[in-house]
Specification:
This protein is mainly alpha-helical and 307 residues long. Helices cover 58% and strands 4% of the residues.
């Protein structure tokens, strides 16, 4: 076995880069996931160096467990710690498979069980107030209304909405072409209200925002070739939530959760919702059956012989 020690953080970080390149080439993970793993593994390497264990040959189960404890002491949440552990396990297994370490440490590491929190959703009345908040007499207001309408009408992720390209609009058919996690494409239908808001934005607002420039994106950013940032989209949601009198903390993802929950409440098929959300596993979509408790109760009363 070709076991290669790494005596400095720089050498270990080179192994991290090698591993991440492998994930991109072989697994097709999304850029955001790769960035998160890079951050997690960099923190792990620095932890090893601080302990004077800057060689993967010295890593034991106890080393990893101690690192998880240090993350917890720094105030990281359970989900962030679980993600860091997953990244470290994959990294160690990769190094073992490549012959860089003598044993499969990852085989003895168990991921903690997480208590899944139910997603925060808006009521239909709150959504209506939110969508009515932007001022339709201003270019920014028309853009914001189109953004909010699309988020709620399609259940698209923030990254999918800001990255929406002009050739991804199938307006006459009432569809959007979204590029989701792992660069997977899916076609998502839009409602009439979203289509109308999008058309008005494209005709009256987008040309004024571009100021004669061109952009392949539906929602261009400040630079000619750039798109609106996710941070800017977050600010749009926050601004209009406050204007609509919604005091809870919202994000673009709240509208995605509300989209799915409201569809389910009105009788939509769970498989159809899964397809529109772009979930690979139906188990991910099933969380919305727990959110919509009233619907489940009505189903029990309607169909159970002793309901």
């Amino acid at each position: 076995m070709n076991v290669e020690p790494a005596s400095e953080p720089r050498a270990l970080l080179a192994r991290v880069t090698e591993f991440l390149d492998h994930l991109v080439a072989e697994c097709g993970l999304a850029a955001n996931t790769i960035a998160a793993y890079r951050s997690d593994l960099t923190a792990f390497v620095l932890y090893l160096y601080e302990r004077r264990e800057a060689t993967v040959r010295a890593v034991t189960v106890e080393t990893v467990v101690d690192h998880m404890g240090s993350l917890r002491a720094r105030g990281l949440g359970a989900n962030s710690i679980a993600r860091a552990l997953a990244a470290i396990k994959m990294f160690l297994r990769f190094l073992w498979a490549e012959g860089h370490i003598p044993r499969d440490v990852a085989a003895r590491l168990e991921a903690p069980r997480l208590v899944k929190k139910l997603p925060e959703v808006l009521t239909e009345g709150e959504v209506a107030r939110l969508l009515d908040s932007p001022d339709p007499t201003t270019p920014t207001g028309l853009r914001d209304r189109a953004l909010l309408e699309i988020l709620y009408a399609t259940g698209a992720r923030a990254s999918e909405v800001v990255g929406l390209s002009m050739d991804g609009l199938l307006m006459d058919l009432g569809y959007l072409r979204c590029v989701g996690k792992g660069s997977k494409e899916r076609i998502v239908p839009m409602g009439l209200s979203a289509i109308a808001a999008l058309r008005e934005y494209l005709e009256k607002s987008r040309p004024l925002i571009l100021k004669g420039a061109t952009s392949p994106y539906v929602f261009p950013g400040r630079s000619e070739k750039g798109t609106l940032s996710r941070k800017a989209l977050w600010a749009v949601v926050k601004k209009h939530a406050l204007a609509a009198g919604i005091s809870r903390r919202l994000s673009p993802h709240t509208l995605r959760h509300s989209f799915a929950t409201h569809l389910l409440a009105h009788g939509a098929d769970l498989r159809a919702i899964q397809e529109m959300l772009g979930h690979a596993d139906i188990a991910t979509t099933q969380v919305y059956t727990h959110v919509d408790r009233k619907r489940l109760k009505s189903v029990l009363k309607r169909f159970h012989p002793r309901g």
